Amino acid sequence: MGLAESLLTPSIDAQVALYAPYCGGRRVEGELRRALELWPSGHINGVRPLAGAPGHHFRLQWQVVEAPLLVSACTLTLQVEPTCCFRFSLAAHQLMVWLMELHSEGDGAPDLSDRFWQWLLLEASVERCLADSSALERNGDAEGH
């Protein structure tokens, strides 16, 4: 990392201080540090387990932003047939909380929390797309809702 890059990229300690008030404070500092280490990559790959069936592989991608109150554009791609994705935007600190809640089951692939999946399916204002189609659906608009 060059000098100019290091001056523009805050240290993990500085980022912890910035995000902690929005993400549970210092009591969850370990989880916050782990999430902040993932943050610059802009993505995670994981598996959502299913009862009695193989899990759904997914990729969550996000726009890396510099502050907790800035909006980050995200895409969640479910690797099922046909592949489908959900596009949404939210405050970076909320995404950081969900990264802090990542957990792994048997095979070690991470999964997002139940809170994330409930939010995505029940509450989020998302744009849904099929990877093999250019048609976009907005919260069921294509189904006549």
Describe the structure.
By secondary structure, this protein is of the alpha+beta class. The chain has one domain (3-143). The protein has helices at 3-8, 12-19, 29-38, 92-100, 114-123; strands at 43-50, 53-62, 71-78, 84-91, 103-104, 110-111, 127-130, 136-138. The strands form two sheets. The chain has a six-stranded antiparallel β-sheet with strand order 1-2-3-4-7-8. Strands 5-6 form a two-stranded antiparallel sheet. Strand 7 and strand 8 (136-138) form a beta hairpin. Helix 2 crosses helix 3 and helix 3 (29-38) packs across helix 4 (92-100). Mean pLDDT is 84; it is low at 132-145.
Topology record:
Blueprint: H1 3-8, H2 12-19, H3 29-38, E1 43-50, E2 53-62, E3 71-78, E4 84-91, H4 92-100, E5 103-104, E6 110-111, H5 114-123, E7 127-130, E8 136-138
Antiparallel strand pairs: 1-2, 2-3, 3-4, 4-7, 5-6, 7-8
How many domains?
1
Cα gyration radius (Å)? 17 Å
Terminal Cα span? 50 Å
Order of strands, widest sheet? 1-2-3-4-7-8
Structural class by SSE content: alpha+beta
Number of strands: 8
**What is the mean predicted local confidence, pLDDT?**
84
Strand residue percentage:
25-35%
Assign a percent range to the helix content.
25-40%
Categorize the overall geometry.
globular
Largest sheet entry: 6 strands, antiparallel
Along the chain, the helix and strand elements come as HHHEEEEHEEHEE
